Amino acid sequence: EVCKKLLGKYPGVDARLFIGGKKVGINPKINNLMPGYEGAKYGLVWICDSGIRVKPDTLTDLTNQMTEKVGLVHGLPYVADRQGFAATLEQVYFGTSHPRSYISANVTGIKCVTGMSCLMRKDVLDQAGGLVAFAQYIAEDYFMAKAIADRGWRFSMATQVAMQNSGSYSIAQFQSRMIRWTKLRINMLPGTVLEPVSECFLASLIIGWAAHYVDMMVFFMCHCLAWFISDYIQLTGVQGGAPSFSKLDFAVAWFIRESMAVQIFLSALWDPTISWRTGRYRLRCGGRPEALDLGKAEL
Asked: Does the residue 299 lie in any domain?
């Protein structure tokens, strides 16, 4: 209904509504995208998840970053203001830990992209085999970005965030999502096994141990406090101002998220299977999944 209203609001825009998908591989998102991709007439394609809240000028912002040498423009994932502690926990993660690594990677030239909202050059994707070539992966966004980078194109970040606005959320869903992402990173990037060292509490323990000849606990607490303050400053930057929740809520959510980090990592190592969308998969080396139990619907 939303799409039909938009089509009616802008009758002069060359647009079509595609319903349903086309099975071309194991990835249900790619299967859903195929009819629209095959019907695309222009040089740029925008892949945007249904749970992303956009503004009237979001696409304009993306295209403004698509300069001559850029092949992909992506948005920093963040979360819209919602009710409940689970929403606060998600917002704290996507405003602190996630952008810290995401922005740092992109600033230093490491290709780090999530497919929540991406504008790409269609001809470059076609050179890589089109969307069909990525239907064999679960982490299609990583491999699409890699294919574009391998052809010499640069990446750029939009000035607007990719604002996640899912109507269904809980602490258990957040934890399951983080475990799934960690499994994918471990499988595709073996260096991820060192990831826990980048988390606050473990890094602070290492710092404290290194300075044990002074006072291990003092160094640990000071390091955690500095990290905590830096994270709050970063959150306000991503949010564009003070968050909708209190500083006490932030402190509780931050502590719980940091405490969950190692447990999430160990859970990802313990069970290599992934439950995602309509089925269960076992990851093979290189990111290719093997279907274990497909659901009733594959699209």
From this structure: no
Domains: count for the chain: 1
This prediction has a pTM of 0.90
- Run of H or E residues at 79: strand 77-79
Domain span holding position 198: 2-294
CATH number at residue 190: 3.90.550
Catalytic, out of 14, 57, 126, 141: 141
Whether 141 is catalytic: yes
Question: pLDDT digits over 163-192, tens only?
Answer: 999 888 999 999 999 999 998 888 887 778
Distance between CA atoms of residues 273 and 289, nearest Å: 9
Hey, is 142 helix, strand or coil? helix
Asked whether residue 100 is assigned to any structural domain, the reply reads yes
pLDDT in tens, 17-40: 999 899 998 888 999 999 999 999
Whether 285 and 187 have beta carbons less than 8 Å apart is answered as yes
CB 203 within 8 A of CB 223: yes
